[in-house]
Design goal:
two-stranded antiparallel ribbon, transmembrane helix, single chain, mainly alpha, Monovalent cation/H(+) antiporter subunit G, DUF6114, 9% strand
Length: 175
């Protein structure tokens, strides 16, 4: 057994942590995390009640149902970013639009906490791009790098030198 490979005595928490890091790196994890965290205060604050001694304060408004719908949709979009990351751009745009709608509907977007977290999550989701595997990266580089250019590239033969010779009155010229 070498010092590089883990042995059979590797702690199971380390194994799970490595698997989680691999899973987290293959999807927009932080985008989904911020979107879920943004949906929680948007859905929670209209239904929350705070007790101070015998005094109960409640934020019950007519927009409670709208806030609940927006919050649940944001949580769902965050989970979608995690588990169905192919639609990350749609989920990011939808999260940004729902965050903007939550400002007038849901107590300034969950007192700006949910609004800001959802905006950041949506922006991260839109900007996230999956990593390229080493084999894909080499194939892409070999396809995009052209060969040496010649003066006669007007005919569309990129990087292919013209090897035909024509005779013009006893003179040999290329092209």
């Amino acid at each position: 057994m070498s010092a590089v490979t883990p042995g059979p005595n590797d702690h199971f928490l380390k194994v799970y942590w490595r698997k989680f890091r691999t899973w987290r790196g293959s999807r927009p994890f932080w985008a989904g995390f911020f979107t879920i965290l943004g949906g929680i205060p948007i859905a929670y604050f209209p239904y929350a009640s705070m007790k101070l001694g015998n005094l109960t304060m409640s934020m019950a408004t007519t927009a409670g149902a709208g806030s609940l719908i927006i919050g649940v949709l944001l949580i769902t979009l965050g989970l979608t970013m995690w588990f169905h990351h192919i639609v990350r751009v749609f989920a990011g745009v939808a999260a940004i639009l729902l965050a903007l709608i939550s400002i007038p509907v849901s107590n300034l977007g969950g007192f700006l906490i949910g609004f800001l977290l959802s905006m950041v999550g949506g922006a991260l989701s839109i900007s996230w791009v999956p990593d390229k595997k080493p084999g894909e990266l080499e194939a892409e580089q070999s396809e995009t790098v052209p060969g040496p250019r010649t003066d006669d590239d007007a005919d569309g033969t990129m990087g292919e030198p013209d090897t035909t010779l024509e005779t013009n009155g006893g003179r040999h010229s290329a092209g």
